[in-house]
Amino acid sequence: MSKKNKNVQKPTKEFIFQKKNYLFLFIGLAFIALGFILMAGGGSDDPEVFNPNIYSFRRIRLAPTLVLIGLGIQIYAILLNPNKNKE
Asked: Which UniProt key words apply to this protein (predicted)?
């Protein structure tokens, strides 16, 4: 009968995301939230009156761009390997 190796190390449980990943996740969420906040509003109190403010630069260009940048940061945060330099 053979002896079993008693020095078998148990695999350590580590989180997939590190502090750097979470930092980028929160930055991305802040960009997305800011984009949606800038998109909000612009409606008219009277439905018979047209408010041309709905087509402002802030709502048409800036806010969607911030949302897309935030989504890009989110993707980067998910794909980021914080242990790359350690290996």
From this structure: Membrane, Transmembrane, Transmembrane helix
Distance CA 36, CA 65 (A): 10
The verdict on residue 64 lying in a domain is yes
Q: Is residue 59 part of a domain?
A: yes
Locus of tokens 């695999």? 11
pLDDT for position 70: 98
Quote the domain boundaries for residue 65: 25-43+50-79
Q: Give SS3 for 11.
A: coil
In a domain? residue 19: no
**Using an 8 Å Cβ cutoff, are 80 and 20 in contact?**
yes
Structure confidence at residue 54 (pLDDT): 84
Residue 84, CB-side half-sphere exposure with 13 Å CA sphere: 6
Q: Splitting the chain (87 residues) into consecutive groups of 10 residues, what average pLDDT does each group show?
A: 67 84 96 95 79 88 97 96 73
How many domains does the chain contain in total? 1
